[in-house]
Amino acid sequence: MRRLWSVLVAVGLVATAAQAQDPAREWELPSKGRLHGSKAVIENQPCCGASRNARVIHPDTAALAKWAGVAARDGRTLMLKLADNRTLKLTDCDDQSGCEADDTRIHRMVDWWPQHRLYVVLVGLYEESVAYLVSERDGRTFVATAPPLLSPSGRQAVALVSNLMSGVDLEIFDFSRNPPTATKITTMPDCNGAGPNSFLRPIPVWTDETHVTFEGESPLPEDKPNTKQLLRVEDGKGQWQC
Length: 242
Fold this sequence. Notes:
Blueprint: H1 2-11, E1 19-20, E2 34-35, E3 38-43, H2 61-66, E4 71-74, E5 77-82, E6 86-91, E7 106-113, E8 118-124, E9 129-135, E10 141-144, E11 149-150, E12 156-163, E13 167-174, E14 181-185, E15 203-206, E16 211-215, E17 230-234, E18 237-241
Antiparallel strand pairs: 1-14, 2-3, 3-6, 4-5, 5-6, 7-8, 8-9, 9-10, 11-12, 12-13, 13-14, 15-16, 16-17, 17-18
């Protein structure tokens, strides 16, 4: 999806579509030891004690310390507490553990959202990354483009990747629905000064409950730094405003 978006941006064809939900993107349970390509299993045993053997590359020590008792690590395995005294185990897979490059999955705890009963896990792939949203209720997991940023109330969120390798991938989440839904925003801001091949600045910031602005330095040096990039987000939908 991201590579396709990069091509569309390059040829200036992204202005016609507004937003789209992909029905194939679902909340899934582990099956035959796999979950969205990761090595994963749900075990009927309680979680979680203290982390151990946790010296891994890019450790998630701070998040695990903050949420001790609901998440822990045993070496390359991240363990998340589920309802009914069960545990979801996500095991890293990379060249050091015998996996091919295109099968790389490195799992790092980012956060736990008690109000939604969701875990946020950053998943490193070979050349990029995604994020898993994991339901504490049953272990069902959704793949987000990046760790989402919650609105002030926590009722909605945005997730963004914006770089020259992956292109622009922006989605909004509606947590008022069960299960939560995600919608891709497939247009770019078209305020005065925005070019047809512009990129979003890479840091989304909620200015209030319904508005997100984008800050930081654009991946394209020729982008005008003061071009307005303001997205209104409401009821699971997004609209650019000038």
